[in-house]
Structures are given as C-alpha cells and as structure tokens.
Design a protein that fits this description.
Strand content: under 5%
Structural class: mainly alpha
Number of domains: 1
Largest sheet: none
Helix content: over 70%
Radius of gyration: 14 Å
Number of strands: 0
Oligomer: single chain
Shape: elongated
Length: about 60
C-alpha cells in the first residue's frame, strides 16, 4: 500500500514539474544502462547486488 502511494506521488510530481520530468528522464536512461550492463554479466544476481550497493552508497554519501 505504501509503495503504491509513493509511486502515485512521484508520478504526479513528474507530470506537473518540468524539472522533475527532466530528472526522471535522465534517471530512466541511467537505469536502462545499468540493466543492460547487468544483463551482460555471467552472474547477474551478483552484478545486480553490486549495482544496488553502489546506489545505496551514493544515496548515503550525498
């Protein structure tokens, strides 16, 4: 339930704010590149875990 409310809020924010739309577009491109990189690895679970760890470290250090 909480995730659905968060997703709805994000979609409304992105739809109404041009700056947020730009950020969301850049983030989508980054996620797509990361997914493509993960898909090319032989151990995809390990690569996905490393990607999540990098994202969490980036959030914590910001």
């Amino acid at each position: 339930m909480l995730f659905r409310q968060l997703a709805r809020h994000l979609v409304q924010k992105v739809a109404s704010d041009p700056v947020a739309r730009e950020r969301a577009a850049r983030m989508a491109v980054g996620v797509a590149k990361q997914a493509q990189q993960i898909a090319g690895k032989p151990d995809r679970a390990y690569a996905a875990g490393k990607a999540v760890r990098r994202a969490l470290n980036k959030l914590n250090n910001s």
